[in-house]
Every structure is written in structure tokens, then in C-alpha cells.
Amino acid sequence: MDYLVFQLQGVMSAWGETAVGEFRPTANYPSESALLGLFAAALGISREEEEKHAALRAGYGLAIAVQKSGRLLRDYHTVQVPSRSKLKGRPHQTRRDELGLPREELNTLLSTRDYRQNAACLVAVQANEQAPYGLEELAKALREPRFVLYLGRKSCPPSAPLNPRILSAESAYDALMGYGQEEAQRLGQEKPNPVERLVWGQGIAMGCDVDLETFRKDRLLSRVKWQFGDRTEYVKLLGEA
Question: Largest Cα–Cα distance of the chain, in whole Å?
């Protein structure tokens, strides 16, 4: 079986969880919807192309090897925005256009946003018969993305190349571990970076038993409307988080 494996490393990352009110939490590893958004950006798929996003969702199984959960960083965030009524009929292609109003007509929004510092993980992708793009094509897009890639939020660019590779292995577990060993050899390390946990969903041959089953609201329903459904997630604990 062929798997596409790549790495995600960042000084900061933000993998959004369900947000209530002014609090914007983050998980310590990517959601399914975040990874599909990463693929869409690499391929040049715009947010409005709902059918293409749905095809990405149906075409691949995903697994994650969490190497470092990173440290939590909490930011008290303020941003100025005009009301919708003030923007009506006013073209605003840039942030400067959006704020081109008298100060008294701008509102201030307050929020608390979480980030992870120096987190790292590996991602394995398995294509099924419905996959709209082959693994080689997806790997090429990750090497030469059409749109800028970031780790959840635009303020969180990757701090290292994604370095995608196609590996033949008996399972996603073997592909992830093999990739880690190859990276260690390439960087001159004595041993690969340890893995804290493995996380995966349906549609991928993981090749290991399950310690936990959880539900996560990250199943993409509509990118335009920002609608997400529940999904079963499987977890294998390998080390101390």
C-alpha cells in the first residue's frame, strides 16, 4: 500500500476546536478539516468550490503521529472592525479599505486565542478509489503550493518544509515510523524523534490497536458556511504527552 507522508513543524500553530463566545481554543494536533484545508490551499482550490472540498473529504484517509504537543500560548486579542451595515455598498479588498471609516464608526472585538508553541507531527495519507488527486499529485502540490500554507491561522507559517514522500508500507503505522527513521538519518540523528500518540480516522489502514475512541467536530460539511459535523477519532498512546 502506498502512503503519502509529510511533516508539520511550526514555531506557532493553532488547530481550532469548537469555539464558544470570545474563547478560541486549539488542539495539540491538526483536525481533519485543517488538513483538508491545507491540501486545498496547496492545490489552489478556493473556499467557494464546495464540490472540490467535498471530494477531498471523501477521497482520503488520514493519520497523525504527534511528536511534540508543544507548549500552550494564550493571547488576549483585540481587533477593530466596522459593522456590517457600514460595509454595505463599500468595496473593501484590503484591510486598509475595511478600516477606511471614521474612528467612531469602528467597533472593537475582544477574544482569547490559544496557540501551540514548537509543536511537530507527521501526517500519513491513504487514497481510496474516490480520490480526486493521486498521491504523487498531492505531494507535488505540497512541495509547490498554489496558495500560502499555514498551520491553522495565517499568523502560523510552517517553520520547515513539509518534505512530502510516497512510501510503500504494510500500514500507515509502518509508513509513519519509516518516515521518521529516514528523517533522522537525513539529519544525522542517532534515533528518530519519539512519538507521543497516533491519531486517525476511518478510511486508513493504521495497523495498530486502539487505546481510546473520541468524537471530534471537524468533519467538513461546508467550507463557505463554516459547518462541521462529528467524526470518530481513534487514539493510540505511545508516550507521555
Answer: 63
CA 187 remoteness from chain centre: 25
Looking at the domain assignment, is residue 43 inside a domain?
Answer: yes
Q: What is the pTM of this model?
A: 0.87
Residue 206 covered by a domain: yes
Whether the predicted pLDDT of 159 surpasses 70: yes
Tell me the pLDDT tens digit for each residue of 101-146.
Answer: 777 778 787 888 899 999 999 999 999 999 999 999 999 999 999 9
Enclosing domain of residue 63: 2-19+29-70+117-237
Residues 6+ apart with CB under 8 A from 115: 12, 13, 14, 26, 72, 73, 74, 75, 153, 156
- Number of domains comprising the chain: 1
Is 126:203 a contact under the CB 8 Å cutoff?
yes
Question: Which helix or strand (DSSP H or E) is residue 87 part of?
Answer: helix 84-87
